[in-house]
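REQUEST ID: PR-0412
SUBMITTED BY: lab tech R.K.
PRIORITY: routine
TASK: structure prediction, single protein chain
INPUT:
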Amino acid sequence: MPIFECRDLDKSFGQVRALDGVNISIEPGRIVGLLGPNGSGKTTLMKLANGLLTPSGGELLINGSAPDRNTRAIVSYLPERTCIPLWMSAGQLLDFYRDFYTDFRRDAAEKMFGRLGIPLKQKVKQMSKGTREKAQLILVMSRRAGLYLLDEPIGGVDPAARDFILDTVISNYNPEAAVVISTHIISDVEKVLDEVYFINRGEIVLHDSVDAIREEKGMSVDALFREVFKC
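STATUS: complete
OUTPUT:
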């Protein structure tokens, strides 16, 4: 059974249709790219999957159920914007996640904080913007979740930080889970992807495995993305 599935999913905001008949099926154990230009509907889809928005039509299912309290227990969500409390210390963040999520691996998160040189007594408000983003990603990836939803995890960070982020994703996700990475920056992320969905103006315009794109089309995912979405 798919861990993440959309069936003719629609979402409108007034007269604006953000998603139009989206069909997606993602099996456990896959790392999937949700790739599209800014404003294509990626964040809307992520919010729907996390239960922060409700569909206007069609269905979105997490492990066979519409998003609710039970599905949120198996979904680990990284929003596009950093939202960890500024008044907390790094140690308090770890304690908060441990208390809130039964699948949170505090020891793993603490080790990654150590790799970044983040003292447990340091307040979030004292961290740089980039360090806050990395800290939030560490918290998200330190859960043993069934589905990881990462909205633009490498947007706005330098190449070295992108390497750290992708290494964190690959090294820490539950291999029996699925990972969905939403981004418009393709070249750095395609090396970790199993398959991709291209989305534009709320519609899925392409779905294929990364291997098939390279073998059948003779180009990288980044090159195909540039061709599909060229102005």
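NOTES: The domain at 4-82+147-228 is CATH 3.40.50.300 (Rossmann fold).
REVIEWED BY: pending
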